[in-house]
Amino acid sequence: MAEVIVRDETMSGRAIESRVLPGLPDEISARELVRLRVREEVARFNAEAGEVFHGLVRPVGAEVTPAGFVVPGGRRLDWEAQADAACAAFERNGFVMLAGDRQVDRLDEVIDLRQESTVAFIRLVALVGG
């Protein structure tokens, strides 16, 4: 079994937040890794019963703030819906995944966790007018 450090970074490479996902297979598809990451962050949010979600993608109806995504009324999130939204965001170039020093281009791409112990997620910001 392997573990990976999942790290959110700015476009300049500054780490924002990181967490360890233990107990993973030695090889995992990018899709499976995204889904596991999202399942963990949604479980943490639902357990804390807070209002601010610090996740990969914005939940439907949530407000974007500098502190994170504010989920109205302490609503619980559905991890599968969030995971589907994250996979769709990846396909639309909403974020980039870096496994070690290489970019992951496809969700079906296999990441060898024996070789890569860190996977970075970089959210891309749409340019005004572009």
* Number of E-state strands: 10
CATH class call: Alpha Beta
Shape: globular
Q: Per CATH, what is the topology?
A: Ubiquitin-like (UB roll)
Helix residue percentage = 10-25%
Q: What distinguishing features does this structure have?
A:
single chain, 130 residues, alpha+beta, Ubiquitin-like (UB roll), five-stranded mixed beta sheet, three-stranded antiparallel beta sheet, 2 helices, 25% helix, globular
Would you give an account of this structure?
The radius of gyration is 15 Å and the shape is globular. 25% of the residues lie in helices and 35% in strands. Strands 2-1-10-7-8 form a 5-stranded mixed sheet, covered by helices on one side. The protein has one domain: Roll (Ubiquitin-like (UB roll)). The N and C termini lie far apart (43 Å). It has helices spanning 30-48, 79-91; strands spanning 2-9, 15-24, 27-29, 52-53, 63-65, 68-70, 95-99, 102-104, 110-112, 118-123. β1 (2-9) and β2 form a beta hairpin. The longest helix is centred in the N-terminal third of the chain and has 19 residues, at 30-48. It is of the alpha+beta class and 130 residues long.
